[in-house]
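Re: your question about Lipoprotein

S., sorry for the slow reply, the queue was backed up all week. Below is exactly what I fed in.
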Amino acid sequence: MRISLSTARRFFKARTLTFLGAFGLALSLSATPAFAADTPTLKIGIATSPQIEALKVAAREAKEQGLDVKIIEFTDWNTPNAALANKDIDVNYFQHIPFLENAKKQGGYNFVAIAPGTIMKIGLYSKKIKRFDELKDGATVAIANDPVNGGRGLLLLQRAGLIKLTPGIDYRATTLDIIDNPKHLKIVQLEASQLARSLDDVDLAQGYPSFIKLAGTTDPNSALLFDGLENRNYAIQWVVRPESANDPRIRKFISIYQHSPAVRAALDKAFGSLYAVAW
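Result:
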């Protein structure tokens, strides 16, 4: 059977329109938000930190995909866990595993860490000396007052050669584990978020670059000694109540955070070489 040229053209045109219509439908479906309009707002808690800017970037991208996200900022390191336990937020993002384990022990929380985020350096900072051997006898040194981060500060002081700790002790070290203190350093313990503001009052302080940047007290890159970024125990974790471990909203947001070039750019801008990703 022969088909006339005009008939063939009409057939080709019809098939083309059908294909384009199907293609357009596919594009429309792919552009459909991943979440329904009545999906509850995802509430994320974070302790005050430049980390919040990257979270805001991820929240904007989540909004484009139909997921509404509210970032809730807390000014201390205790309230984010209390808020999570009280179901005021769905997930928090501010603590590493050692801090979480201590919080669970102290507060009786039933939480789980479901994904890692960034690893942040800490350092030993001073506005009064340039080298550790310039520290005078009886100098005042500030470290964090919580059990985990205080231990991390003591380990850093040991690396600097300023003290010696009980052999084999880890981040759970306390001042009672100091077995040698040749310079008779006076070690004071302050809330971690306040250490950055102590630099005018002490000779040396454990410091968190993010808080130092917020406080503007010194250059975050100017530490006399940094700890490394290789210990993934210190990676900030996404922490939830057990029943929320597979919440698709949380999983989607974490995926956006981990894979978005814009989020990575925001982290680079905030922290430069003072952080690494742990995923």
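The chain has a mean pLDDT of 89. The CA atoms of residues 138 and 185 lie 5 Å apart.

Happy to talk it through on Thursday.
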